[in-house]
Amino acid sequence: DAGITQSPRHKVTETGTPVTLRCHQTENHRYMYWYRQDPGHGLRLIHYSYGVKDTDKGEVSDGYSVSRSKTEDFLLTLESATSSQTSVYFCAISEGGPRADTQYFGPGTRLTVL
Amino acid sequence: GDSVTQMEGPVTLSEEAFLTINCTYTATGYPSLFWYVQYPGEGLQLLLKATKADDKGSNKGFEATYRKETTSFHLEKGSVQVSDSAVYFCALTGDPGNQFYFGTGTSLTVIP
Known about the structure:
Chain A is mainly β. Chain A has strands spanning 4-7, 10-13, 19-25, 31-38, 42-51, 54-57, 64-70, 73-78, 87-94, 104-105, 109-113.
């Protein structure tokens, strides 16, 4: 199994509070990704990173920000959580390179915004 | 833009039945195609992949063939087991940044 951990694994928070989710990898892979999983939508890309301090937006980036100050860590921040951000969040990593590369997923974080 | 469409579930089969989960795609260029599996409470795991037309990916008795002419990558297994009960996602890679595009997932339940 790829060495990917996510923390916390479960979180309940209130609307309007800031939330930070952490993804940590031990594989030294270049690319890291944040997805959210919702019924009927599959997985949708929020943000991704292609190197330290290099990030870009995905399909559903509104309301989220990310940071990557070290190769091994990729943080996802909800500046002011809303109920629509209740979801399961998955981090993924890949070695990089175009098209053919496999992504490996972490165990997920279940976030509930009340 | 790039996208994946897979058959809706849930799918319920008896043990040892034949499984097909349909997946079609829309993409510019020549994507790689993947099937991932998600067991309850876990993250996604790669099941198989194919990187070019006519390639066949296979793993654990599952197979899928990359068909460019029909833009399809259907998942098949000849004899399912109870342990195959999970959600299956079809996906493709696209640009930029090696982005993945996932289908909505198909839930499979195999009953003894």
